[in-house]
Amino acid sequence: MRLEALRIPPRLHGFDGGGAEVFDLQIEGAQVVAVEPSRHPARGTLLSATVDAHVHLDKNYTVREVGPAEGNLFAAIQRIAVHRAGWTADGLRARMERALAEAWQAGTRAVRTHLDWIGTDAPASLAVFEELRARWHGRVALQFASLVPLDAYADAAAGERIAQTVKRAGGVLGAFVYRNEGIVHKLGRVFDLAQAHGLSIDFHVDEGLDADATGLRSIAQLTIARGLHGRVVCGHACSLAVQEDAFARDTLALCAQARLHLVALPTTNLYLQGAWDRTPVQRGITRIREAAAAGVRPSLATDNVQDSFYPYGGYDLVETFGLGVQMAHLAPADDWLDTITLNPARALGLEWDGRIAPGCPADLVLLAARDPYELLDARGRRRTVVRAGRILAKTE
Ligand SMILES: Nc1ccnc(=O)[nH]1
């Protein structure tokens, strides 16, 4: 198969483009075998298949039963707690399948989901997740992180049980961190367990606009102290945006030193953060631009879809990218397409980092956008998804 006249954003180049912007690709079998400058004007934009570093497959599409939390994270947590008690394998399977089918059609090749993990035993969602991870193998690579309230790790035996289960199931150790008492000590327990069991870590951290929420800084310091550079992912970090510039800069320098992976969640952050009873001025998004300037190239991810935390949305990362561009002034847009391709691929430790080059997998998303401006319009988002060298889906 030959793909002609496509812009490849420079950050996604795994080859020397020699200053050209538009390319023709030759695909043989499941591989790209040649990338050459094109003689034609661009008729679209080529990305590597997208990677979604942070979702919640266990609770998506439940908003019709639980209701939206109207801008209040802790209300969202309470609403889902009541609903969670009634979760069944069939219900979970249907919700997860629907999400994966949508992500796959949109051109996503890998997804990391958090699984609500209350108590020490594995949640009902884990067995369903493992079943779907096997069923979707070769289409969407699936990872999970345990979403455990940080305080649960204060109990050493409970922490050990959780870590053993996560290890057995091939997952990532996670926690929800927000202004906890004794936060450094409890975070230290998570790092102890990760080290003892050889696990990577993924935190929900500082998801709020209180300037004294400084979990991110503690996590970066612990990552350096424990030598877990590059093994730790942090989602949200909203409070970084409301802290003093100098303080935030120091935190980001530590994050860079720790090779921490930062994931911003535009839809949910916009919905849950800022005021509800008047026009919200604060956007809740973390300091994406300062992070990048400090050497921490961040990811954008989907987070919640049609649940109490975020009642709208779907699994289209190109759409989420468009929102991120507008929310955080990610301009020029072309320069930030690594937020849904390369950066999350590295955060998830995927074999292919998403750079397009001869020899790379032919897992690609061909967008109709003829220039960077069309990336954010409905026509420009229309796409042809190519997986393993074959056209999977086309939107007209
Ligand atoms: N933003 C979120 C925090 C905690 N749980 C969720 O599902 N989402």
TrEMBL record:
Which residue intervals define the domain Amidohydrolase in the entry? 86-392
> What protein does this entry describe?
Cytosine deaminase
Q: Which domain of life is it from?
A: Bacteria
